[in-house]
């Protein structure tokens, strides 16, 4: 289940400055009377190989933080750097490209496609891009092994447990060797033991592959595996 391969190492440009860096980021959603301050002057820096957990109640801005950090959403103000690129200065097209190259997302629901096997879930994006070669297949097999799903390679989502689906989602997110890994409430569908296992696996993969990882959750019981824990309240990070 382990690998000695380190996919990514700190480069001189990014070492020390953080592979993921948010400076004075605010996000307002909606307008007029309905306007909500989802993020309120957030600063966050995450180094390669660092596993940061953000814990906060529902509605505190955790998913907004990941959307902005991963370039899914432009902040109202502030800057976001991913793997040395300043996302807020890019066009939508450039930002999408940066996200696809440098960011891996794992969502609460694993968002696996019902008709595809575990292996096919990992290969689909490369297939669409016309880049499905032997190296990609080798990498997919290695990742499936790394998350302990070798025996499930040919299984479809309905044949998997909740924990296995979450692990397949993690393997899929790692296919592009992302600099930044963003994980939203990975354990909400899992029991306590499976939750602890899932978080340990994310920690292990973060350290082995050198991703700058942010996991957000409202569950405080599963924070032990994190290198650093922040609290989020009403869009403010402390
Ligand atoms: P969390 O993930 O911690 O539950 P969110 O980031 O989803 O928090 O939401 C933060 C705040 O922003 C909440 O008050 C939520 O109601 C609000 N919000 C989220 N999405 C939207 C939206 N599209 N339009 C307006 N308000 C939103
Ligand atoms: Mg959320």
TrEMBL record:
Q: Which SUPFAM superfamilies match?
A: P-loop containing nucleoside triphosphate hydrolases
* GO function terms (MF aspect): ATP binding
Keyword terms of this UniProt record: ATP-binding, Nucleotide-binding, Transport
Source organism (scientific name)? Streptomyces daqingensis
Cross-referenced InterPro entries = AAA+_ATPase (IPR003593), ABC_transporter-like_ATP-bd (IPR003439), ABC_transporter-like_CS (IPR017871), ABC_transpr_LolD-like (IPR015854), MacB-like_ATP-bd (IPR017911), P-loop_NTPase (IPR027417)
The record, for Gene3D superfamilies, names: P-loop containing nucleotide triphosphate hydrolases (3.40.50.300)
Q: Cite the Pfam families for this sequence.
A: ABC_tran (PF00005)
The ABC transporter domain, residue ranges: 20-238
Q: What is this protein called?
A: ABC transporter ATP-binding protein
Q: Key word Nucleotide-binding present in the record?
A: yes
């Amino acid at each position: 289940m382990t690998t000695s391969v380190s996919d990514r190492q700190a480069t001189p440009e990014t070492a020390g400055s953080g592979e993921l860096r948010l400076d004075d980021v605010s996000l307002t959603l909606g307008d007029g009377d309905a306007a909500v301050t989802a993020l309120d002057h957030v600063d966050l820096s995450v180094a390669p190989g660092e596993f940061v957990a953000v814990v906060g109640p529902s509605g505190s801005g955790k998913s907004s933080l990941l959307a902005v950090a991963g370039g899914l959403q432009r902040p109202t103000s502030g800057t976001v750097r991913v793997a040395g690129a300043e996302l807020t200065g890019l066009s939508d097209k450039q930002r999408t490209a940066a996200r696809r190259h440098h960011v891996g997302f794992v969502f609460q629901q694993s968002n696996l496609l019902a008709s595809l096997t575990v292996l096919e879930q990992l290969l689909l994006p490369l297939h669409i891009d016309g880049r499905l070669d032997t190296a990609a297949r080798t990498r997919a097999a290695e990742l499936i092994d790394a998350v302990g799903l070798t025996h499930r390679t040919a299984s479809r989502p309905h044949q998997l447990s909740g924990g296995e689906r979450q692990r397949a989602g993690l393997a899929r997110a790692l296919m592009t060797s992302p600099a930044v890994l963003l994980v939203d409430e990975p354990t909400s569908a899992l029991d306590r033991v499976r939750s602890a296992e899932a978080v340990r696996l994310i920690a292990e993969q973060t350290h082995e592959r050198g991703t700058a990882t942010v996991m957000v959750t409202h569950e405080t019981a599963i924070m032990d595996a994190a290198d650093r824990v922040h609290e989020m309240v009403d869009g403010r990070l402390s």
